Amino acid sequence: MGMCSGTSTCKTCLLRCPRLRRSPWNVCGLSRDASFPRVPEFTCQVAGCCQVFAALEDYQHHYHMLHANTCSLCSRAFPSGHLLDIHILEWHDSLFQILAQRQDMYQCLVEGCLEKFKTSQDRKDHMVRFHLYPADFRFDKPKTSRGPAMPVAADLLARALQDDGAAMEVCSEPTALPPCTRTYNHRIPSTVCFGQGATRGFKSSKKKNKHH
Amino acid sequence: MWSGRQARFRPLACGVEELRRRRREREAALRKARREQHLVSKRLLREDAEGPCAAELLREVEVQQFLRLAQSGTDEKEREKALVSLRRGLQHPETQQTFIRLEGSVRTLVGLLTSNRALLQLEAARCLHELSHSEQSAVAEACLPATSYLLTYLSGHSSDFIELCLYTLGNLIVESEAVRKQLLPQGIVPALAACIQSPYVAVLEALGYVLSQLLQAKEAPEKIIPSILDSTLPQHMLRLMQPGPKLNLGVAVEFAWCLHYITCRLTGQLGKCQRSFLGLPTQVNNAVLITHGALATLVLLLLDLAGTVQRVDDAGLELLACPVLRCLSNLLAEVPVESEGEEMQLRDERVMAALFILLQFFLQKQPSLLPEGLWLLNNLTANSPTFCTSLLSLDLLEPLLQLLPLSNVVCILVLTVLCNVAEKGPAYCQRLWPGPLLSCVLNTLTLSDTEVVGQSLELLQLLFLYQPEAIQDFLQQSGLQALEQHQEEAQLRDRIRALQQTAIHA
Description:
With about 210 residues, chain A is mostly helical. Helices cover about 30% and strands about 5% of the residues of chain A. Chain A contains eight helices and four strands. In chain A, the strands form two sheets. In chain A, strands 1-2 form a two-stranded antiparallel ribbon. In chain A, strands 3-4 form a two-stranded antiparallel sheet. Chain A is elongated and about 55 Å long. The termini of chain A are far apart. Chain B is mainly α and about 500 residues long. Helix content of chain B is about 65%, strand content about 0%. In chain B, strands 1-2 form a two-stranded antiparallel sheet. In chain B, helix 3 runs antiparallel to helix 4, helix 7 (about 120-130) packs parallel to helix 10 and helix 9 (about 145-155) packs antiparallel against helix 10. The longest helix of chain B has 18 residues, at about 15-35. Chain B starts with 15 loop residues before the first helix and ends with a helix. At the A-B interface, helix 1, helix 2, helix 3 and helix 6 of A face helix 2, helix 6, helix 7, helix 9 and helix 10 of B.
């Protein structure tokens, strides 16, 4: 809120006037000014992503939102490491599936809440009732064996976004998945096998059906 | 008799009227400096490139068009442009109303907020930010579906985006209790506790803003402060207030105010722009803070501030001095100054010197802060002979007396401090008289304010008790005549009579 970076106080009236306009995206604001020298457009360096950018901040934001916390096994992107970890555990870890048959393994997604549940539906009910989360919270999709990871009661919005190349969660049909998208962010090293190999997470539709 | 000894942040004769009058006077001073205003006001982030708000009023059909284009346009650039246009339109309050009345509009916006197109996401977040700035709580409440996502994004990596989400949340918190009621179960406190570990200054400032708005909510003492104290937030706040090369002034100011809101319970049903900082300290809150080392941090900060104002002509420093002084005063009200152990720092003579350096600084640059400093001085000297000794041995009596003529509030506080010193006994009174003190007090007797005169009488009473030789001097300086002016005043009559008796019989 200041006239210059550093402190946030306005130097003239010695207080932080709420009416002061400030660009938190200092460079971004500048780079949108036509007279500011521009870099030539560049593409995202992540294999399989062909987004083009003219400003570094735009690319930074894109990278953080779409590639920083992405599952290397199914290409779903998550806004935080915490959600990614839970996703990997629940979707790609066979040991989790085994344990889940015997004890409550589905942890509440809200950080700081230590509750665990028997099924993902129970977890969702808890989040809706106790934490007042929306019932269609985007980062808590149930596992489906095919099709885009959208709840069946999809509305106009969901369908519209599907047309766009869909949600953050990329369609998980094995045939549609380009092989090169697995090159980043290996959370589970490919040399580690739980049982019969990590790729089992895609192919086994039998196990997935059990956890609806 | 003299009842003011135990005065902490409570005024002396605890009449409700006096309380109110003092509060009004102080708040007037504060409002003059407009310090409070900025703290409860909303924060608006807008790109400089756009210039002043020249938002055109958008019609409903235009809003619909932009939304539709943003949601399902074919070209990426077109979609972004549509959202930018919508965002610009949302600067206008009427367009905000139009927007929230459109069916499915917020839903669409939330969908864009959570889409896989980073720039659309950013623009959608900016639209929400514009909406959050509305002064209509209906608009804030329309943003309820977005809060779970705003919170989720706080644990992401994009610092600009996090900052935007934080300011949006902060604005929504100010505006609507319904929003606060939803944010608490949604886990805002753990989300902030995780976010406060961010290394980005902009994020930390924004977080301080959110926290300070949460703490100023009217339901804060029962519903919000306990969970904040249970979290790791207090220790992180104190870490960010540690003086040293890494101290950032803006961040420290935010968290110092947060600390202040915790240490004092807000009293009364005051409007948003008139928070009373003179709450009554709550013991539970303060005990927790003290175990986290709040006193040590605040004292170090005080010393650091005093050092800085001497070296640097930075007028922003009083923004930090104010909450630090208030916090210290409030915490001291609960902690006996002469206790053993960790409160050793409080015995440090440098605290007294630092405080007077700050008082001089305030005198020159920001006189409205003098009462703050003097309250701390009062709380230091009230129960501590050590600090009274420091005051005298550092020759701080004269600078203190110089403050008497400034205003009624300052005058009363100075007299209170002098009473604190005087009541410690003869050894102390011998340092007060002979000296300039008596003629200064006689001057205050000529004033018409009842409270000023009352406090002067208290001081005289103590002086006559422990240093009877002063009575002669008093009589020679026409003290009795000065007393006579006020003998019809109901509140003062008894004390005046008692003093007259003492003086005559000496």
